[in-house]
Amino acid sequence: MFNSKKLSTVLIIVLSLSILFLGIYAFASEGQEAAKEAAKEIVPGSTTPWWVWPLVLFVVTFILGILAVLGGVGGGVLFVPIVGGFFPFNIDFVRGAGLLVALAGALAAGPGLLKRNLASLRLAIPVALIASAAAIVGAMIGLALKPNVVNILLGATILFIVLIMAIAKKSDFPKVPHPDKLSQALEITGIYREESLGKDVEWNVHRTPQGLALFIIIGVMAGMFGLGAGWANVPVLNLLMGAPLKISVATSKFLLSITDTSAAWVYLNQGAVLPMIVVPSIVGIMLGSMVGVKILVKAKPKAIKWMVIVLLLFAGTRALLKGLEIWK
Amino acid sequence: MTEDRKKASEEQLAYAGVLNIGMWIGLALLVITFILYISGVLPSYVPIEKLSEIPQGSNVPYWGMRAHEFNQAFNVPTGWGWTSLVAKGDYLNFVGIAMLGGLSILCYLVILPILIRKKDTAYVVIAIFEVLVLALAASGILKAGGH
């Protein structure tokens, strides 16, 4: 459990991140206040050079990339609430960027996971069809909603994700007494080498229809909020359908490359993608992820995971209060 | 038999191969075109310094506006209209973005002949539907928001 040394480490990291984000927010507020004053003048203008925010974005997403790997979460679930809450970009552009960030991460990880047979194409393909179609619907709904409604719903969703992360159990090797008829018909099964046990693990899934039904909801939320949906994919694949944890995590990561593609196209076609936001974010998160993988060997995952949970709690609350116009 | 099942299937390896190459090309394009954009080598359609600017009569910067408001302010084309602006530094970036967005469609098209050859009818049908879904999303036919 938590000893005082671990608690101190977590508190120091949380405090540092809080100072960082409050600093960003203060900088933004000062810029906006000065900008409002400038706007009252006849001549419009910006008090912040254009390159400042993309540079800050690159640094922040680099840190998020590290945290995402260490905390075992996707980049999207951190990106949208944090960038949406503390940067001056409209939530439309943030969501468009969030989907592309999650997509880029999934595309980068996908080939390796597929080649190692940890991500299962047979499991992913039927799920992807449902989730990607639903993500289109979610994206269209999300772009039609007013920003404060989006922020309220996003805040509530992030807080729900925090709850899932805090209390959900994971099952390394769920027991699947009998694969259901649908999974048998589709031959959704496999074997992989579990190195930690030094043996081959054969796996099946069950409750496939129920899982597919849940992926409709997951797809809609992914499209609506620009989140990656890995936070939901893994529990459904692992706890509901019974896929081993490693297969669930790997297949979920790969699955994002298809789900997020469909939603990202809707945002792109609606003009809700700005390269000045997208590219620094993608490069930042991918570089951060590479560093995170190297640090992972030495890091203490549980402490980092709780830090990520606190960060998401902060970001989710911020989104909720922003939507309610309590904390603008 | 078990050793065969432990290995990734032919279609899985084909998917991974195309995904890998396409991903690296897409990312490289993204970085190169972004450098061209911010360096000003190519003129931008939306002046770069305007993005953070607060327009007259407003209290939010241009990139703080809703997407449709931003598009109206700068007369930005939606759908595939960006292709007419690829000579502009900002819209040239969309080439890399579109490549990353189109990869999944390409991968499905690559594995379809393998699935057909294996007579995996269910997955052929699912894969065709997936291509149609992704193509629909990419087509620009679907409209959203836009007050």
Give a quick precis of the structure.
Chain A contains 12 helices and 2 strands.
Give structural notes.
The complex is a heterodimer of chains A (about 325) and B (about 150). Chain A is mainly α. Chain A has one domain (about 10-15, about 55-325). Chain A contains 12 helices and 2 strands, in the order αααααααββααααα. Chain A has helices at about 5-40, 50-70, 75-85, 90-115, 120-145, 145-165, 180-185, 210-225, 230-240, 245-270, 275-295, 300-325; strands at about 190-195, 200-205. In chain A, strand 1 and strand 2 (about 200-205) form a beta hairpin. Chain B is mostly helical and about 150 residues long. Chain B has a domain at about 1-100. Helix content of chain B is about 60%, strand content about 0%. Chain B is built from 5 helices and no strands. Chain B is elongated. The chains are: A mainly alpha (about 325), B mainly alpha (about 150). At the A-B interface, helix 1, helix 4, helix 5, strand 1 and helix 10 of A face helix 1, helix 2, helix 3, helix 4 and helix 5 of B.
**Overall 3D form of chain B:** elongated
What's the mean pLDDT score of chain A? 83
- The count of DSSP E runs of length 2 or more, i.e. the number of strands of chain B, is 0
User: Biggest interface pair, residues each?
Assistant: A-B, 82 and 80 residues
* Strands ordered across the widest β-sheet of chain A: 1-2
Number of helices of chain B: 5
Layout of strands and helices, then pairs:
The complex is a heterodimer of chains A (328) and B (147).
Chain A: H1 4-40, H2 52-71, H3 75-86, H4 91-115, H5 121-144, H6 147-167, H7 181-185, E1 189-194, E2 199-204, H8 208-225, H9 230-240, H10 245-269, H11 275-296, H12 301-323
Antiparallel strand pairs in A: 1-2
Chain B: H1 2-6, H2 10-39, H3 67-74, H4 89-117, H5 121-139
Helix pairs in contact in B: 2-4, 4-5
